[in-house]
Amino acid sequence: MSFLADYHKDYPTWNYIEGRPNSSLATSRYFHLSNLNLLSDWTMKFAFRDTLRDRWSKWLPLNKVPHNSLRYGLDIHRSLLYNEIVVESDYPDYLDNVNATRMVGRILEHKGFSPMYYYSGNKSIHCHIILDFDMFLTLDKMVLQELVTKTKKLYLFKRKFMEWIREKIINCWDLNIRQFDKDLVKCSHLIRSELSRNKLGFKTFLGYTYKDITCVQQICNEENGIQPCLGELKISKPHNFQEIVEEFLMDLNQIALKTKTARKEKSLMDWTPKPTEIRPQVKFMLSEEFKSAGDGCNRAMFIICNELKRQELDHNSCLNIVTNWRDKMECDIKDFDIEYRLRSKNYVLQDSFLNKFLLELGFEKDQWRG
Question: 144 falls in which pLDDT band (50, 70, 90)?
């Protein structure tokens, strides 16, 4: 199977994963994922990327996972635990991810959370938090009673609370000073598994504090022989947990009030799309002047697709714009690549990133600033 390391086809990769039988990457990963599956009450699901066809398998529970896939699989994704929060910083530049994760890490550690920081193996950084649900037993009886009244069913309460606290953390506790992957607010999204291979290397543990995140990528692969690490699972018991729960209850009340008010005030104008302004750097890329960019067209297509999706345009409109742009630029970009980029997730592209890209191609700031 093409999502497994193959002894006959790729001995260096096989040897790197197998290592020593008692302390190999394969053994460590198998027991780690099995333990996580146990913590999830056997509800965890896995997906594997077919390296030959570049396709992902369906989400599979452990009892349906092909034999030895957790041991010798290369690119593995897993679902979140019901009490797990993952903050994924996925800016295009690794140093941007370092700075963003350090910032959210300071906030989390100040509140008493116990994060586990991982380098994804390419450019992103993941911050994993496992919340101790026994903390709810320490709450005042009146607060517990209100929780029961508001949510009625235990499973509904857990789901609502976890979605709320994930959103809080991903938004840096309402500060919105950095942007992280919001798909991870709900458990309907997979995350790269620990010790899974990415583009540059395998996902590896960095430490338990934001201070352990270095500006140098911790690349672990068969070429340099460096083995990725696993961190011991830490359970988070945040300070002032009762205050956090009270804030959750307050937000529930505000959401209910806003929903009720919105129903009364809704008008046809609310359905009118409010697109954001296309940034001048992207307008320049869409212009005839950009035709001299040469080999910059592929990266420009990635930027243009992300910008168009911010405008809330439908897929066909975006496709027509990008296709016409490609033909005008006479770029060697396939229809499949455009379709794939338009359907993939959005990336956070800061102005500094766009400026740097255009400067690297030899354009002056005056050209796109008018």
Answer: confident
* pLDDT tens per residue across span 177-204: 888 988 889 877 899 999 999 999 999 9
- Domain boundaries, position 35: 1-75
The answer to whether residues 332 and 221 belong to one domain is: no
Say if residue 70 is in the same domain as residue 19.
yes
List of residues 6+ apart from 336 with CB closer than 8 A: none
Going by pLDDT thresholds of 50, 70 and 90, the confidence category of residue 265 is low
Identify whether residues 64 and 2 lie together within a single domain.
yes
Helix pair 351-360, 297-310: axis angle to 10 deg: 160
* 263 and 298 belong to one structural domain: no
**Would the pLDDT of 272 be above 50?**
no
Picking from 231, 246, 269, the residue at the C-terminal end of a domain is 269
d(CA 75, CA 197): 5
User: Where among 11, 40, 75 does a domain terminate?
Assistant: 75
How far apart are the two ends of the chain, measured CA to CA in Å? Answer: 54
Let me know: does 198 contact 76? Beta carbons within 8 Å: no
Is the whole model's pTM more than 0.85, yes or no? no
Together in a domain, 154 and 302: no
For the ranges 85-94, 205-214, 327-336, which has the lowest average pLDDT?
A: 327-336
pLDDT-derived band at 359 (thresholds 50, 70, 90) equals: confident
Q: Does 148 score more than 70 pLDDT?
A: yes
Report if residue 274 sits inside a domain.
no
In a domain, 275, yes or no: no
Q: Which two tokens stand for residue 199?
A: 């583009």
Q: What one-character-per-residue DSSP string does 210-278 give?
A: GGG--SS-----TTT-PPP--PPP-EE--TTHHHHHHHHHHHHHHHHHHHHHHHHH--GGGGS--PPPP
For tokens 């009450």, the residue is 41
| Helix, strand, coil percentages for the chain (3-state, nearest 5) | 50, 10, 40
**Structural domain tally of the chain?**
3
Residues 142 and 202 in one domain: yes
Longest distance between any two alpha carbons in the chain, whole Å = 69
Give the confidence band of 230 by pLDDT, cuts at 50, 70, 90. very high
